[in-house]
Amino acid sequence: MSPRRASRTGVPGRELKLSLKVRIQGILENVNKPKIGKNGKPGKPSKTYTARWVVDTEPHRLTFATWTLADAWRNELLGYQRRGIPFDVESGLPEPLARKAASKSWYEHAVAFVDMKWPDIAPKSRSSIAESLSRATTALTTSTRDAPDAKLLRQALEHYAFNTAARAAGPPPEPLAAAVEWISHNTVAMTDFDDHTQGSALVRAALNRIAVRVDTGKQAAANTVARRRAVLHACLDYAVELGILPANPLKRVKWSAPKSTTVVDRRTVVNPTQARRFLEEVGKTGRQGPRLVAFFALMYWAGLRPSEALHLKRSNLLSLPSKGWGEGLLTRSNPRGGRRWTNEGRSREERQLKHRAQGDTRPFPIHPELVSVLRTHIDEFKIGPDELIFLGPRGGLLAEWVYLETFHTAREAALTPSEAASPLLDVPYSLRHACVSTWLNAGVPATQVAEWAGHSVEVLLRVYAKCLVGQDEVARRRIEGATQPPDEEPPENDPQTNKPDSE
């Protein structure tokens, strides 16, 4: 049986066949044929040294340039043997080294994680995972030799390696090919995360890398760090699920992430007077303005997200009476994810409603003022293909740049100079925030608002905590009324305690 050349690189995922039957042999000296020099004469013969050992019945060998290196390797093998550590029959390596050699690399695992998540997530989530993993991966390399430019490496990871569709389409484009080749061979083994001497350091290095901006090196936004950390945690959890790691190493590391906030800033929320002023200015703005009054009105009066308003169809408007409230029912959304991340290569992709299962619907109320706006819009601009309410200048889907351009122009005209310089109505989404805040402050039960807005009650109250105005004063009056002695008069102007006798 011919001896095997031991290798420090194994086959990822291979099951080890272990044996304690190990015999370490002496070092073999090899005399090589002399090389012919430039003068045509042979030089001195060179020597190499081969360490030899047998695991079970399989012979193994590893050749070194010097006797010192060969002897050091032989002594390392003897050390493992003396401690009673089994060897892998196929690779000839002691079990710890064999497991590391047979482990997937971080790069291979991260790619597998992307492919697992890709079919079931939205384009924006795909982009978020790729961006987060590309940052973490740059901190998990094993070498800097011949490393590509840092910016080029991030592009190779984000635009190709961690994009399932791009890899399925063929080899990487020429500018990225070398970077993809380099990173695929130069990331840590997954088993390194379970190593007590370096596992925690690797996790901390990845966390520190995702916490900074690549352009300035300064601290990234807290919400951005939280999002990236969640992706890293999920990727390592997947390794536990596959049996690559016994536990998620992220849980062993005490690392303080910057505090994130999901609470809406009350300074961005417009009041009804400011909202009406803005909608009036939208109707006066350019050629597209009149077509977009109803678009922005849906966000303010009905709490729709921009992606939901874009996909609104006539069939979603269940009733638009001549007087009073109307009723709507959302069925689908059309979020923007970017051409690189959608299944059909378009910038937007039709999907189920946010936070809802496929096929779920969401009712929404249509305020009497919104009913009037929608009836006027339909009468004037008619219904587009596929019953779409809103169309772009050329009859296609309304583009983001079109409504953003109108939004910012109308905002400048509608707000005073001091208001325009503040965060007030800084983005179209602020109209939705204003709507939900108005519902809550009007006393609509949180369960009802959550259903209309497409949130859970817990998330709703946390996100809009700073937008609840005057609720603390109402609560204090109610507590005062409930705890005063029977012979005292209840506080004035408390609707809960000053009720007519007939009630």
Task: Spell out the key features of this protein.
hpI Integrase, Chain A, three-stranded antiparallel β-sheet, single chain, 19 helices, elongated, disordered C terminus, 503 residues, alpha+beta, 3 domains
Please give a structural write-up.
The strands form three sheets. Strands 1, 3, 4, 5 and 6 form a five-stranded mixed sheet that branches. Strands 8-9-10 form a three-stranded antiparallel sheet. A two-stranded antiparallel ribbon has the order 2-7. A hairpin with a 6-residue loop joins strand 8 and strand 9. Helices cover 43% and strands 8% of the residues. It has helices at residues 67-82, 95-102, 106-117, 123-137, 150-161, 164-169, 174-184, 199-210, 222-241, 272-282, 289-302, 306-310, 368-381, 400-414, 417-420, 429-441, 446-453, 457-463, 471-483; strands at 4-5, 18-19, 22-24, 28-31, 47-55, 58-64, 87-88, 317-319, 326-330, 362-366. The protein starts with a strand and ends in a 20-residue tail after the last helix. The protein is an alpha+beta fold and 503 residues long.
Mass-distribution shape: elongated
List the uncertain runs: 7-13, 495-503
CATH topology of the largest domain: hpI Integrase, Chain A
As a percent range, the share of strand residues is 5-15%
Tell me, what is the CATH class of the largest domain? Mainly Alpha
Helical region count?
Answer: 19
The largest pleated sheet is described as: 5 strands, mixed
Please write the string of helix (H) and strand (E) elements.
EEEEEEHEHHHHHHHHHHHEEEHHHHHHH
Counting helices, strands and paired strands, the structural category is alpha+beta
| Overall tally of structural domains | 3
CATH architecture of the largest domain: Orthogonal Bundle
What is the CATH superfamily of the largest domain? Intergrase catalytic core
Distance between the termini: 100 Å
Mean pLDDT: 85
> How many β-strand stretches?
10
Q: Helix content range of the residues, please?
A: 40-55%
**Rg result:** 33 Å
